[in-house]
Amino acid sequence: MTRHSYAEYSIEDFDKFDCLKLSKGFYLLLLFVLRGYIVWIMSLTNRKDSTAIMEFFFPDPSLFYLSLSSGVLGLFVVLIMSLRRPDAANWVKVCWRYCRAILMLTLVSIVGCFYWDLLSMNWILSQTLIVSLFVIFCYKSHRFNINLKEFPDKLPEK
């Protein structure tokens, strides 16, 4: 990475390993991809009526299962993200470089799953629009590109 790549960032934008902190858009993308799991956890914590929350977000049970299946790769990205540290195994470093490709596959599978279930055209178009915005973000975000190129290294002790 060149010095000019970091010119627009301040010291607060870096973590304890001198890597640029992960983009907020990256976290939004993960929330979108993992929304089925998030709703599932929310419904499990509701003791009175555990299915009410799920039925609100996913009126058709097949939508919930499609959301879970398309979010599996998102869980893998969260695993890689949580293992991203200086003493990480080599496979984590390799997988980190391919997180964008994994997320793109996940996003395309989301649209494919919803199209396969033949929902209303408005729902499919709205999902496609959201996915398209995330795809543009993944390729145009300067910070996200830096995040994928960096991997934490051990810093010398002072």
Structural topology:
Layout: H1 24-33, H2 35-45, H3 50-57, H4 61-70, H5 72-82, H6 90-97, H7 99-116, H8 121-140, H9 142-149
Helix pairs in contact: 2-3, 4-7, 5-7, 7-8
What this model shows, in words?
By secondary structure, the protein is mainly alpha-helical. It has one domain. It contains nine helices and no strands.
Quick structural gist:
This protein is an all-alpha fold.
Give the topology string: H per helix, E per strand: HHHHHHHHH
Residue share in β-strands: under 5%
What's the gyration radius in Å? 18 Å
For the termini, the CA-CA separation is 24 Å
Average of per-residue pLDDT values: 84
Estimate the helix proportion, in percent.
55-70%
Oligomer: single chain
Can you tell me the overall shape?
globular
Structural class by sheet pairing and helices = mainly alpha
Overall tally of domains: 1
- Total number of strands: 0
Number of helices: 9
Largest sheet: none
Q: Ranges with pLDDT <50 over ≥5 residues?
A: none
